Protein: THAP-type domain-containing protein
Amino acid sequence: MKMSCMVVGCGSTGNVCNILQERREKWIGALRRADLTEQKLKYGRICSKHFITGKPAKLTEKNHPDGIQNKNSRTNF
Structure:
């Protein structure tokens, strides 16, 4: 299955980031999508356009603004 960005209205297929397990629930909540299934979550990614620095923060960076995607989405944080 082709991997693409899960942010509504994006659809980018380039430079996608794996969802980090520790932040998974926050990321899913930030997507605000009612149509997410386990299949979509398994193959879904968030592309670099939705992070201030272009990539998610490291797990050790608990207070980094890129802890969850927060840019170029319908509801920015």
Notes: The mean pLDDT is 77. The beta strands are 16-17, 46-47. Residues 45 and 75 are 18 Å apart (CA to CA). Helices lie at 24-31, 38-43.
